[in-house]
């Protein structure tokens, strides 16, 4: 069974550590019976909605590099062409085996479809595209520390989680946390999926992943 992730180099970011993380991502998923596939910008451009959708996303305020933020929006175009399982490339697999939920919308996090491992049919990913495209900026999108507006595909899907109509949560098998160090979840080392999120720089994230991987079967 395929598991897709999306990666496209961003000029402003260091790619060497990301490419190493991608290698580990592939190994971790392949070890547990998946066929890991990395999508990129060429795959997103296959969708007929690409130009109009990208133009709209470029109007959204962000505190990150815009080139990075736009790619996060565009990954959903690539998945809408395919359907199936998707996750960020810094979500490592420690025992989550292939599961087919047919046409169900599934997420491995209690927050939303964002920043998780998800299963959607093509129509589910099309709905994500429509939710993002039609999103209206409100006061809840203000970063109060910096006093500036900021949205991303992740914040939009979190804000609209009640509209995503998620069929099934896999909290018992995996969970999402905002960082890979100092987790508030007591038993994170026993979960089947772990998200080494962007609270760290890429180099710090890679170091944490490798430290944890030293005890993982798929690296031996």
Describe this structure in words.
The protein is of the alpha/beta class and 220 residues long. It has a single domain (2-219), classed as Spore Coat Polysaccharide Biosynthesis Protein SpsA, Chain A (Alpha-Beta Complex). The chain has helices at residues 16-31, 41-44, 50-57, 66-80, 122-133, 153-159, 202-213, and strands spanning 2-6, 35-39, 84-86, 91-93, 106-107, 118-120, 142-143, 148-149, 168-169, 193-195. The chain has a 6-stranded mixed sheet with strand order 2-1-3-6-5-9. A two-stranded antiparallel ribbon has the order 4-10. The chain has a two-stranded antiparallel ribbon with strand order 7-8. It starts with a strand and ends in a 7-residue tail after the last helix. Mean pLDDT is 80; it is low at 171-185.
Can I get a quick summary?
The protein is built from seven helices and ten strands. The chain has 220 residues and is of the alpha/beta class. It has a six-stranded mixed sheet.
Q: Compute the gyration radius: what is it?
A: 17 Å
Task: Please report which band the strand proportion falls in: under 5%, 5-15%, 15-25%, 25-35%, 35-45% or over 45%.
Answer: 5-15%
Span between termini:
23 Å
- Quickly count the domains: 1
CATH architecture heading: Alpha-Beta Complex
What is the overall silhouette?
A: globular
Number of helices: 7
Order of helices and strands: EHEHHHEEEEHEEHEEH
The total count of strands amounts to 10
Strand order, sheet with most strands: 2-1-3-6-5-9
Q: Structural class of the secondary elements?
A: alpha/beta
Low-confidence parts:
171-185
Report the helical percentage: 25-40%
């Amino acid at each position: 069974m395929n598991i897709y992730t999306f990666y496209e180099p961003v000029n402003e970011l260091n790619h060497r550590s990301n490419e190493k993380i991608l290698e580990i991502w592939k190994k971790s998923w392949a070890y547990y019976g998946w066929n890991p596939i990395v999508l990129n910008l060429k795959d997103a451009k296959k969708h007929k909605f690409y130009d109009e959708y990208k133009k709209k996303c470029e109007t959204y305020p962000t505190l990150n590099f815009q080139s990075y933020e736009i790619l996060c929006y565009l990954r959903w175009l690539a998945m809408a062409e395919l359907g199936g399982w998707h996750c960020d490339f810094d979500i490592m697999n420690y025992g989550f085996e292939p599961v087919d939920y047919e046409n169900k919308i599934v997420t491995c996090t209690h927050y939303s479809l964002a920043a998780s491992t998800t299963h959607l049919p093509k129509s589910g990913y099309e709905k994500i595209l429509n939710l993002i495209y039609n999103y209206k900026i409100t006061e809840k999108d203000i970063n109060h520390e910096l006093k500036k507006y900021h949205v991303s595909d992740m914040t939009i899907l979190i804000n609209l989680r009640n509209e995503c109509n998620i069929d099934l949560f896999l909290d018992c098998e995996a969970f999402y946390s905002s960082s890979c160090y100092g987790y508030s979840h007591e038993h994170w080392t026993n979960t089947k999926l772990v998200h080494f999120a962007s609270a760290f720089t890429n180099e710090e994230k890679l170091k944490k992943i490798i430290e944890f991987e030293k005890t993982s079967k798929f690296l031996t």
